[in-house]
Each structure stands twice: as structure tokens, then as C-alpha cells.
Description:
- Keywords: Lipid metabolism, Repeat, TPR repeat.
- One of its GO terms (biological process) is lipid metabolic process.
- This is Tetratricopeptide repeat protein 39B.
- There is one protein chain.
- This protein is mainly α.
- It folds into 3 domains: about 5-80 and about 100-225; about 310-375, no CATH class; about 385-525, Serine Threonine Protein Phosphatase 5, Tetratricopeptide repeat, CATH 1.25.40.
- It has helices spanning about 5-20, 20-30, 35-55, 55-75, 95, 100-125, 130-155, 160-185, 185-195, 200-215, 220-230, 235-250, 255-265, 270-290, 290-305, 310-320, 325-330, 335-340, 355-365, 380-385, 390-395, 395-415, 425-440, 445-455, 470-480, 485-500, 505-520; strands at about 350, 355.
- It has a two-stranded antiparallel ribbon.
- A hairpin with a 2-residue loop joins strand 1 (about 350) and strand 2.
- The two termini are about 45 Å apart.
Amino acid sequence: MDLKTALEESTIALNLFMNNKFSEALELLRPWSKTSMYHALGYSTMHAMQAAMTFEQQDILSAIATMKEALHTCQRYRKKNSVVESLSSLVSKQGTDQLTEEEMHAEMCYAECLLQKAALMLVQDENMINFLKGGIKIRTSYNIYKECQQIVEMTHNHVKTDVYSQFEGGVKLGIGAFNLMLSLLPSRILRLLEFIGFSGNREMGLSMLREGASVHSLRAVLCVLTLLMYQTYITVGSLILFYTARIRILKGQFESAQQKFEECIAAQQEWRQIHHLCYWELMWSYIFQQNWLKAYQYADLLCKESRWSQAIYVFQKAAILSMLPEEDVKRMGEDVEAIFRRVEGLKQRFAGKSIPTEKFAVRKARRYNSPNPVKLVLPSLEMMYVWNGFAILGKHAELTERMLITIEQAEAKLNKVQNPTEYQVDDECLVQLLKGLCLKYLHRPLQAELCFNRVVQSERRIRYDHYLVPFTLYEMGLLYKQEGDWNKARRFIETARNNYKDYSMESRLHFRIHAAMNSLSNSPIMTP
């Protein structure tokens, strides 16, 4: 595929990605991702973005592997005596003429991939070796960008083809973003970085990004997004603290994470949105610890301050309160039933569509619209599962054991019900799913399988929470994968994907299934 066509297809893929058509974008790029530098760059970048959003170790490792392949692809197109390896070749105008347009683009694509790989390595493991390796890669990437900038300066008066304009736009993005982001670092660190060759000129960075945004190129939209990120999240120090804390949450280091979130909140007062991100994470960290009072405090703050999704915040607040003794709730002046009844009126619509998680919360809260409402069972833990929280909780065995005790107490209470309601089977199945999850993470597979089977066997008796069966089948698949039975894992996950539709949180499950099937595709095939 020639360079012009590759750029055109990559632009189409970027547009698909920006319009939330992630799978279509990846499918467009995948066939050429090992032979075209731009397909390789786009394909690996999308994997890197997924890893950055999830912070899941498997996603990070997958993204690093994909980025490594992209670097190999770009390397094949680089001039053997590459730009960085031969700085003297750029001192004269004749040196730039020795590079073809394809080789110029290869240098820039290589720099972009190298920078992203460095970032992924730093996220993967915060040890000193990765820090040094990442730093070297960042320095190399920056040097390549500087040499590419020299090419642009030396060829300023040349006739600019569309392919050349694409190269120029990429240089403006790279140099502009480097200068802008480095300029936001503390002055003491910036002086050190400038001493070893980096540049942190904010005005220059903003100027280049604005120029890049105005050029018709693949990277114009990325220049715009970088400028928007700067305008929206100028407090980079707070964001660094936030992501440091977030990584610790994902590792199950809850006390340490809570401390970092508190530091992040104290670091600045101008951008309350960052506070709200911290409140959300703090709420969940205290839920994992079953510190319901602290979790309630942050849920209450979100209800009062954030407008992102009032329906979810209010549901979370009521769900947390429902985990506390009734006398404590009354002493706090709260009415759980009244709070649940508020949820439906807070549902939002974007572009004519409801947020799936809000729809789920609204449907669950409708129980309280009845004159004699039937209380939800473990609603806070159910939402924790919806937000994939058990995968985080499961990294902390002691807290998982404590959560299992809470679930078993709810199970015992359900077993003692004298006059079952219409929700009885649904509630029992929910408890079995949650119990099975805890047992899975505690490495008690036979007990977990028994719980999951109880849900599946009750399928015809479930009246409202039909999502429970496909989600349980998916979890059974993961359980079998954990135990090394790849064939059985695939079978159960495929059953969850193919045999069920029109249930709550369907798209969320399909995202999880997609990730699981990708991991299974590289697994050994074993006989039952």
C-alpha cells in the first residue's frame, strides 16, 4: 500500500474511532498493521488508548506487544542510516534531500510509537529499570522529533504536497505537545530536563499546536484534542496524583490510594472536576473496605457537587445507605426509600439515548415506587460488579473474605423469608453470582462453580434481572479459563455472547466478552 492511501485509510479509521466506532476502526487498520507504518501506528495507538483507559495489566501488556510490532513495521521504512543516527546529514540542505517522503514519515511514526511504548512501560511497572528504559525512549523520541523539525525548517520554501503537509502536521503535534507538557512541570524539574536537551517553551508549544490544528492533516484533530486537554486539565500535577492513586487502587493498595486521592484534592481548588474524580474513586475504595460511612460521605459529595450523572450518584448514595443499620441511617437524617425514588427523575438522555448504567439504576430503583417496596439486596455490591469492582477487590484476599461474609449473611436472610416476593428468585440469583465471584477470586473453583450453576439453573424462574444469566455464563467461562480449561471457557463465553439479547448492560458484557475472547485466542487449546 502506498503512503498516500495509507494516510487516507488512517484518517478514516481515526474518524471512526472519534465517533465511538472502535471495532470498525480496528478492523480497518488490522489487515495492514504489519506492513503499513500508518496502519501499524493507528492500530497500536488505539490499543494504547484502551490500556490507558482501563489500566488493566492484560490490556497494558497487549498494548506494549502491539506497539513493539508497530515499531518493527516503522523501522523497515526508516533510512538505514537514520535521521537520529546521523545528525550531520541534517546540517546541510543536501542531507534532507537524501530522505524520501516515506522515510521522513517513518521517522515520525517511529518517534510516536516509541513515545507511547515508553509511557506504557512506565504504567506497567513503576520500577527503576522501567523508569530508566522509558526515559531513554522518551529522549530518543524527542530527538527524532527535533530532527524532523529541522527537516521542516530546511524545506520551508519547497512545494508542499499533501503527503508533505501530513508530515509537517505530525511534527507540529509532536514538538508542540512536548513543549507544552514539559512547560507544565515544576521549574526545578524543567531546568534539569532543559539541561539534558529537552525544551519546555509553553508559548512555542501552544503556537505549534494551533498551527497543526489549522493544517489539513491526519493529526490536526489530535492537535485540537491536546489543546482542549490543556485548557480543561491545566493542573497536570493533580492529574499525576490522580493517576498514581488510580494505579494503586487497581493494585488493591487502598489505604495508599486514599492518601494520594486526598493529596490530589488538596493540591488545587480551581478545577472541581478533578475533585469529583477523586470522590468517585474514594467512594469505591471505601466500599471495597466496607467502610460504609466514609463511602457515603463521598457519594453525598458527588450528589451535591457533580452533574455528570445524578441518577447514578443518587442511586449509589441510597445503595450505600442500605448497607448501614436502619437506626444509623435515621440518625443521619436520611430516608433510603425516598432517595431511591428520586433516581428515575434524574435520568439523562444524550443524542436521544440513555446512559446504560443509568437505565440499570433506574430499573433497580423502581422497586421503591411501590406503596410496599421490597428492599434491594446488596445493591452496592451489585453496582460494584457492574463497574467491574470485583476484579479489583479480588486482589485483596482479606477484604474479599470479609465481603464473602457479608454476602453469606444476605444469603442466610433470604433463606429465612417466610413469604417470598416476586423478586425472591432474582435476589437469590444475584447473591449466588456475587458469592461465586468472591469464591473465584479466593481460588475456590468448585464452590464458585456451584454458585454460578445455581444461577444458570434458575434461568426460567428469573422474572426481572435477566442480565444475571449471561453475565454468570461469562464468569463461568473466566473461571474455567483460570483453571486452564480453555475449550470450556470459550464455550461458556460464546454461549453468553450468542444466546442472549435485550438484557440490561448488554453492551457492557459484550465489551468484556470481546476482551476475554481476545485473550483466549492466544491460549493453548486443551481437550476437556
